[in-house]
Prior knowledge:
Blueprint: H1 2-27, E1 37-38, E2 47-53, H2 60-69, E3 75-78, H3 80-85, H4 87-95, E4 99-102, H5 115-131, H6 150-157, E5 162-163, H7 169-172, H8 176-186, E6 191-195, H9 204-218, E7 222-224, H10 226-234
Parallel strand pairs: 1-5, 2-3, 2-6, 2-7, 3-4
Helix pairs in contact: 8-9
Amino acid sequence: MKRKLAYSGIVIVIILALAFSAYKLMNARNYQLFGNITSHVETNDKVVALTFDDGPTKNTDAILSLLDDYQVKATFFLIGKDLEGQPKEARKIAEAGHQIGNHTYSHKRMVLKSPAFIKHEIEKTDDLIADIGYTESIVVRPPYGKKLIGFPYYLNKHKRETITWNLEPDTFFTQADEKVRYVKENIRPGSIILMHPMYDSTGNELMAIEEILQTLMDEGYTFVTINELLTIKND
Ligand SMILES: [Zn+2]
């Protein structure tokens, strides 16, 4: 009886350890089982990539005009479903010369999903991005940064890059000045910053982005797109 209890204890510990490892793997920003994943690049150049997730939405004009004021190109990870609803907004992003990435069609967690589902999520969004006249190579960012086996497997098979981030002010802070301070304290050359201005109705996020642009430029940083950052990585 005692031995049986000890065995079940060991089994429970193993199951917990496996569940914990899977959880860590699902959320890892710079490790996955298959293919390239990039959360930042190692470089001495003071470069940084500003990336926006979700949308496009009616906020697009305000975001583009801010980036234009600072003469900065950013990378927009668009949701297929949103793009379908707002193709004009997406086209504006492409026409302004920003990079567009694939953020899946439905923005569901790409964990424990069938290969057919994953393929559809990526390819339908690729088609929608192509439909707005975007011709550059399309990098991919999983919703919530979550992936386990099927998603990286599919991307690796198709030689696609998975892009995450190393700075995520929105996760930790709500006030613009706190977000700016966090970025200022944690920035290093080759960083990828994630922000979410598309569904913000307060103007708070745009204010944070403007202050981040100003602060990092004052520190001598140049803003680049993800594709430009990957070129630096490969040099
Ligand atoms: Zn998202």
